[in-house]
């Protein structure tokens, strides 16, 4: 039989007593200083930092509406301890909303990205449950809904920092919500939009109507319908940056660049090569785009670690990637799964390679940089057909100060990509999927002023991805007769060829502009991976009547469009033309022969690469061994070093090797997953220990 330790139970009783006293004090303090509804605490002049806090000498309480520091708020000592020393002075949204939310009001809060909205709702949740002395037996006391798992994970970390209450709340076996005290919707406008309707309605139907509700976002809803759905009671509308001149953080430099679809990857590559020391977040429109660009760029070894994040990845790998990107200077290719709420530290650049679907999406994406008083830069790629997006961004109120820039001709990687696709046939499928899903995503976009698939250089796009055959676009054929871009028949090929030629010429005109304004966009070196490029002289003109093969013959493996003296586009695959017929049709034998040669050359090259890599690894290991040996010898000689030096000896810094082995990927992912599991395990252990300690104290 377990006996209770009288010392322990005494301490617990004492703690409960002092908690009860603290709660009573907090309740009275909150009641005494309750701000008038509709008032803005930011407009109230702040008391001096050394003014008394809490109960005053005259038996009253210090005011808390208008204060600047967390310690001046009527919140528990434990929360104050959790906040300090990192969080001392409140941000505007915190100052404006906390006095209202702490006294139980519903809040509809809007503030720019990175302005500290998370703490503005985490603190009231924790305090409400603390003051209600919520325990596991009471069921679920608070729910915070966020649009992505990464964001939920990040919120959980933030909660853990601020409120130790979670130690006994997070694993509550009683998932009963009938007593719910407080509901939070983070990124509220996203959660309230149609995509989440079914899930949200299902959750809300389980919740009691009598509760406090907090809604926060950088781009807020005011739709009465939405508010009715959530049964908000006289909410406080707190929009701290409503008067602001800009809708985005002031420390954010925003650029846009016009770039044709088939030049996007070239520009992206050039950009990365020119910014190897920067942490870069790249947004693409679909998982498949992300996967393809990540895979091929990795093989081209840009000289900076690359990562990818999308919804199809396993959760633990996603989480590990997110954590790694927080810590490491690298390039992260991502879908919009990373566009909202995520607080990656110190991102230098946000690059939107694919245009965001609307202005809120733009604001959230660029908001991954320039967070909380830090500076940051963003670059938006717009295709010539998407120029309207620029006009819309410039027209919005409050303003988005985005400037149009021109870039020099980027380094072309298309040829390298086609070589890769020959070398790694499995990548062809990735490229095809990226091609189709991208065009489909444009086709499905709602804003037709901006997104028009019929204006895109489809054939050139395929070539730019390294594809030698343009994949079929059934969805276009089925849905519309206007968009004549399907490649299912010879006639259709011809029609779209004409179109893509026109776009190609426009594209070249834009990209070749010499009017360069921004050095950061310029490549400093060419890619190290040399293509098995075809340098065949092209001489015949394109004739389109008969074609023996339905392949994209208008651009060779990624090379640029060339023109003859009369300004006509020279067909790049003319070298493959059937010389006997002389009609420009493709000779199957020549094609086969050519590919055979190419494959052979790639094999040789591959062998050389592998040898080189093995040699490098060998040299590196030898170097490390020598280093270790030297350290050991020095240590044995009794070198009295400082403790930190010794630690360094034990963990000599490893140089990272960027290599393009297929297997490395899975190994990386597995390692990342393991690391994330290890982190989770370590956290659980720490929690368990803390629990044990508190039971025995
Ligand atoms: N009062 C504060 N003092 C110092 N740092 C703070 C404070 N409040 C928040 N931060 C830090 O600012 C960063 C951004 O905060 P947070 O993620 O809450 O922004 P947000 O407004 O929710 O952004 P988003 O709209 O992108 O979700 C975080 O790193 C957070 O730790």
UniProtKB/TrEMBL annotation:
<keyword id="KW-0378">Hydrolase</keyword>
<dbReference type="GO" id="GO:0005524">
    <property type="term" value="F:ATP binding"/>
</dbReference>
<feature type="compositionally biased region" description="Basic residues">
    <location>
        <begin position="615"/>
        <end position="630"/>
    </location>
</feature>
<keyword id="KW-0694">RNA-binding</keyword>
<feature type="domain" description="Helicase C-terminal">
    <location>
        <begin position="260"/>
        <end position="412"/>
    </location>
</feature>
<dbReference type="InterPro" id="IPR001650">
    <property type="entry name" value="Helicase_C-like"/>
</dbReference>
<keyword id="KW-0547">Nucleotide-binding</keyword>
<dbReference type="Pfam" id="PF00270">
    <property type="entry name" value="DEAD"/>
</dbReference>
<dbReference type="Pfam" id="PF00271">
    <property type="entry name" value="Helicase_C"/>
</dbReference>
<dbReference type="GO" id="GO:0016787">
    <property type="term" value="F:hydrolase activity"/>
</dbReference>
<dbReference type="GO" id="GO:0003723">
    <property type="term" value="F:RNA binding"/>
</dbReference>
<dbReference type="GO" id="GO:0003724">
    <property type="term" value="F:RNA helicase activity"/>
</dbReference>
<protein>
    <recommendedName>
        <fullName>ATP-dependent RNA helicase</fullName>
        <ecNumber>3.6.4.13</ecNumber>
    </recommendedName>
</protein>
<dbReference type="InterPro" id="IPR025313">
    <property type="entry name" value="SPB4-like_CTE"/>
</dbReference>
<feature type="domain" description="Helicase ATP-binding">
    <location>
        <begin position="98"/>
        <end position="238"/>
    </location>
</feature>
<dbReference type="InterPro" id="IPR027417">
    <property type="entry name" value="P-loop_NTPase"/>
</dbReference>
<keyword id="KW-0347">Helicase</keyword>
<comment type="function">
    <text>RNA helicase.</text>
</comment>
<feature type="compositionally biased region" description="Basic and acidic residues">
    <location>
        <begin position="668"/>
        <end position="677"/>
    </location>
</feature>
<dbReference type="InterPro" id="IPR011545">
    <property type="entry name" value="DEAD/DEAH_box_helicase_dom"/>
</dbReference>
<feature type="region of interest" description="Disordered">
    <location>
        <begin position="615"/>
        <end position="678"/>
    </location>
</feature>
<comment type="similarity">
    <text>Belongs to the DEAD box helicase family.</text>
</comment>
<feature type="compositionally biased region" description="Acidic residues">
    <location>
        <begin position="634"/>
        <end position="646"/>
    </location>
</feature>
<dbReference type="Pfam" id="PF13959">
    <property type="entry name" value="CTE_SPB4"/>
</dbReference>
<keyword id="KW-0067">ATP-binding</keyword>
<dbReference type="InterPro" id="IPR014001">
    <property type="entry name" value="Helicase_ATP-bd"/>
</dbReference>
<dbReference type="InterPro" id="IPR000629">
    <property type="entry name" value="RNA-helicase_DEAD-box_CS"/>
</dbReference>
């Amino acid at each position: 039989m377990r006996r209770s330790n009288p010392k322990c139970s005494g301490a617990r009783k004492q703690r409960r007593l002092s908690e009860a006293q603290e709660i009573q004090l907090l309740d009275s303090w909150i009641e005494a200083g309750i701000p008038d509804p509709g008032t803005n605490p930011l407009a109230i002049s702040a008391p001096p930092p050394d003014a008394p806090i809490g109960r005053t000498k005259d038996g009253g309480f210090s005011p808390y509406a208008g204060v600047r520091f967390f310690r001046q708020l009527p919140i528990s000592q434990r929360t104050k301890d959790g906040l300090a020393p990192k969080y001392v002075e409140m941000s505007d949204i915190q100052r404006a909303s906390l006095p209202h939310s702490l006294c139980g009001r519903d809040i509809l809060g809007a503030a720019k990205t990175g302005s500290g909205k998370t703490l503005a709702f985490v603190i009231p949740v924790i305090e409400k449950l603390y003051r209600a002395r919520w325990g596991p037996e009471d069921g679920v006391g608070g729910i915070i809904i966020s649009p992505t798992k990464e964001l939920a994970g990040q919120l959980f970390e933030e909660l853990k920092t601020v409120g130790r209450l979670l130690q006994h709340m997070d694993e509550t076996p009683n998932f009963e919500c009938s007593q719910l005290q407080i509901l939070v919707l983070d990124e509220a406008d996203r959660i309230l939009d149609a995509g989440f309707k079914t899930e949200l309605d299902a959750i809300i139907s389980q919740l009691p109507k009598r509760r406090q509700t907090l809604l926060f976002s950088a781009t807020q809803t005011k739709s009465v319908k939405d508010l009715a759905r959530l049964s908000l009671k006289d909410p406080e509308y707190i929009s701290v940056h409503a008067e602001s001149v800009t809708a985005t953080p002031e420390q954010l430099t925003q650029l846009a660049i016009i770039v044709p679809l088939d030049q996007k990857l070239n520009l992206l590559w050039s950009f990365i090569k020119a910014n190897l020391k920067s942490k870069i977040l790249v947004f693409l429109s679909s998982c498949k785009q992300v996967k393809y660009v990540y895979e091929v760029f990795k093989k081209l070894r840009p000289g900076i670690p690359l990562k990818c994040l999308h919804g199809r990845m396993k959760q633990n790998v996603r989480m590990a990637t997110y954590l790694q990107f927080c810590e490491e200077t690298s390039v992260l290719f991502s879908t919009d799964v990373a566009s909202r709420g995520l607080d990656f530290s110190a991102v230098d650049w946000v690059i939107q390679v694919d245009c965001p679907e609307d202005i809120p999406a733009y604001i959230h994406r660029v908001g991954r940089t320039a967070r909380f008083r830090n500076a940051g830069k963003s670059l938006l790629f717009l295709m010539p057909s998407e120029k309207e997006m620029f006009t819309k961004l410039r027209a919005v109120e409050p303003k988005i100060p985005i400037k149009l820039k021109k870039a020099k001709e980027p380094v072309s990687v298309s040829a390298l990509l086609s070589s890769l696709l020959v070398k790694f046939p499995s990548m062809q499928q990735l490229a095809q999927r990226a091609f189709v899903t991208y065009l489909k995503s444009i086709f499905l976009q709602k804003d037709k002023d901006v997104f028009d698939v019929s204006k895109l250089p489809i054939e050139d796009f395929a070539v730019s991805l390294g594809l030698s055959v343009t994949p079929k676009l059934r969805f276009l054929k089925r849905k519309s007769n206007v968009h004549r871009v399907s490649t299912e028949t010879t006639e259709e090929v011809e029609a779209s060829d004409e179109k893509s030629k026109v776009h190609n010429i426009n594209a070249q005109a834009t990209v070749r502009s010499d009017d360069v304004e921004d050095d950061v966009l310029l490549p400093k070196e060419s890619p190290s991976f040399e293509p098995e490029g075809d340098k065949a002289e092209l001489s015949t003109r394109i004739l389109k009547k008969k074609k023996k093969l339905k392949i994209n013959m208008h651009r060779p493996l990624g090379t640029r469009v060339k023109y003859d003296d009369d300004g006509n586009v020279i067909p790049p695959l003319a070298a493959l033309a059937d010389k006997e017929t002389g009609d420009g049709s493709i000779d199957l034998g020549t094609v086969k022969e050519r590919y055979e040669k190419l494959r052979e050359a790639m094999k040789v090259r591959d062998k050389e690469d592998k040898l080189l890599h093995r040699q490098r690894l060998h040299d590196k290991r030898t170097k490390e061994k020598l280093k270790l040996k030297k350290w050991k010898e020095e240590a044995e000689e009794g070198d009295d070093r400082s403790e930190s030096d010794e630690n360094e000896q034990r963990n000599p810094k490893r140089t990272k090797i960027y290599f393009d082995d297929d297997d490395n990927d899975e190994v990386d992912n597995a390692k990342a997953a393991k690391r994330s599991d290890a982190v989770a395990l370590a956290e659980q252990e720490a929690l368990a220990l803390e629990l044990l300690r508190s039971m025995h104290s």
